[in-house]
Amino acid sequence: MTLEPVRVGIVGLGRAGWGIHSKELLARPETFRIVAGCDTLEARRERLAEAVDCATYASIEELVADPVVEVVSIATRSCDHLAHATIALEAGKVVFLEKPITVSYDEAVALRESALGAPGRLFVRHNRRFEAGFRHTMEIIASGILGEVFEVKLRRGGYQRRDDWQTIKAFGGGQLLNWGPHVIDHALQFLGAPVASQWSDLRCVAAAGDAEDQVKIVLRGVNGRVVDLEICGGAAMPEPEYLIWGDRGGLSCSGDTIEVRYLDPRHKLSERAADPGIPGQTFGSQEALPWVEETLSVDPSEPTDTTSIWDALYASLREDAPFPITLEQAVEVMRVVSLAKEDSPFA
Question: Which pTM does this prediction carry?
Answer without folding.
Answer: 0.95
